[in-house]
Amino acid sequence: MISLLAFSLLGAALAPAFAVTTATELTQKHASNSEQHEAGSSNLTAYENFDQHVVTKDIATSLAFPKALTTVIDKAQASTHILIVTRDGELVIIDNKGESARFSLMLDDLYTKGQGGVLDILIPSQFPEDRTVLLSYSKGSDSANRLAIVKGQLSLTSGITNIQPVFALAQAKDTPVHYGGKLLQLEGSALHTKQGFLVTTGDGFDYREQAQVISSQLGKVLGFTIDGKPLANPPFPDNPFIFSIGHRNPQGLVEGSDGNLFLHEHGPDGGDEVNLLQQGANYGWPVVTLGKDYSGARISPFSTYPGMTGPIVDWTPSIAPSSMIYYSHGRFPMLANTLLVTSLKAKALYAVRAVSNEYISTKIFEGPGERLRDIALDHQGNLLLLTDGENGRVIEVSPRGN
Questions:
Q1: Which CATH class is domain 4-399?
Q2: Interatomic CA distance for residues 307 and 312, integer angstroms
């Protein structure tokens, strides 16, 4: 537990940063219980009985500890290739005929204990003209491991080759948990061109105070270019890779159609969050949290703190949010302009939407009854859900009757 004295010292140390990172006040909706949202969400009746209006089918099975999936969509051919990366460094590619191929990822010093391993894969929008793709993974050993980003050349018939480092976190840790690792290309954002990328980093669990320390890259969102350089005009010149601070273990990161950035992260026992991500902002962890320690002890006396930005959605009890997309396809009209969040603990899909200047969370689908690790779309706008564990699946969710 962090003492009040530590908070005081922390505030003094970060006072210059607060002057830079003062965030716009947000209209917030703190959901003390996600079920209360569902009971009181009269404006979200379009979601009612969503799971009764869809059909599901398995696209892939027997995936050993899958961590992320993405798609390559060929609009001209009306086809989708599905790509899955597994914890232990395997790339699975499923073509438009449903046939799969498996390839080993040649990742230097891959560390797979705990929550480690391959964490995410990102295919930039320039593909296939530029075949460069990004991977995040944990590297190192029990005593010194860290998040790393690499790039390689993707072929849908031969996997990813010519893998080269982009950058790795400067700080190593001795815990096998809380890596973050979610990748995002900045496309519609006014902040940067398509050459800019973000990656989330976790606090390392035992290093949670580092989320508030500017000299540390733990508990942050980092901005970088494909060549491993920091983005232009960084809000923290002394550590120019830092985009935002005060995060615990963020695993969801998307850009909306209007350029807004949304991030979700795991709280401790409660306090899972969705945040409206702003460059230079401080999201409070561990000074501010609506959750508590797994032991039951209070982590912080503060639910708000000057200069720190609160969440737009809070899940207490925890749902363990694992990934997120922004849905804008016409396949499911009721989901238009909605954040879709997968969850591990709740084993369900949640919809988050702005209603009357508040963000409301609604559980809409729990058909598989399994921990949901990731979500993507195919060329038709159907949902692709990746389940977690030693026998993971890719499940297609499509409208009934289509």
A1: mainly beta
A2: 16
Distances (CA, A) of 397 to 44, 61, 388: 20, 15, 17
Three-state SS string across 279-290, please? CCCECCCCCECC
How far is Cα 120 from Cα 254, in angstroms, rounded to an integer? 13
Task: Tell me how far apart the alpha carbons of residues 271 and 32 are, in angstroms, rounded to a whole number.
Answer: 9
The CA distance from 21 to 245, in Å, is 9
Q: Cα separation of 216 and 126, whole Å?
A: 32
Question: What is the C-alpha to C-alpha distance for residues 388 and 376, in angstroms, rounded to an integer?
Answer: 15
Does 178 qualify as catalytic in the annotation? Answer: yes
Structure confidence by residue, pLDDT tens digits, 208-263: 999 999 999 999 999 999 999 999 999 999 999 999 999 999 999 999 988 899 99
30, 53, 178, 264: the catalytic one is: 178
Name the pTM for this structure: 0.90
CA distances from 124 to 65, 283, 372 (A): 24, 27, 24
* Contact in structure between 126 and 134 (CB atoms under 8 Å): no
- Which residues are CB-contacts of 358 (< 8 A; sequence separation ≥ 6)? 27, 28, 29
Domain assignments of the chain as residue spans, ordered by start:
4-399
Residue 257 CB neighbour total at 10 angstroms: 11
Mean pLDDT of the chain: 89
* The two three-digit tokens of residue 388, written as one number: 């977690």
What's the rounded Cα separation, in Å, for the pair 276 and 25?
11
7-36 pLDDT per residue, tens: 443 543 443 343 333 333 444 433 333 333
Sign of the CA dihedral with 50 first, then 52, 53, and 58 last: positive
Measured at the CA of 35, the angle between CA 253 and CA 305, to 5 degrees, comes to 55
Spatial distance between the Cα atoms of 119 and 100, rounded to a whole number of angstroms: 21
CA nearest neighbour of 184 among 192, 176, 175: 192
Phi, psi torsion values for 169, nearest 5 degrees: -60, 140
**279-311 in b/e burial notation, b at 16+ Cβ within 10 A?**
bbbbbbbbbbbbbbeeeeeebbebeebebbbbb
Q: Return the SS3 of 45.
A: helix
Q: What is the DSSP letter of 24?
A: P
- How open is the CA angle 75-353-254, to the nearest 5 degrees? 50
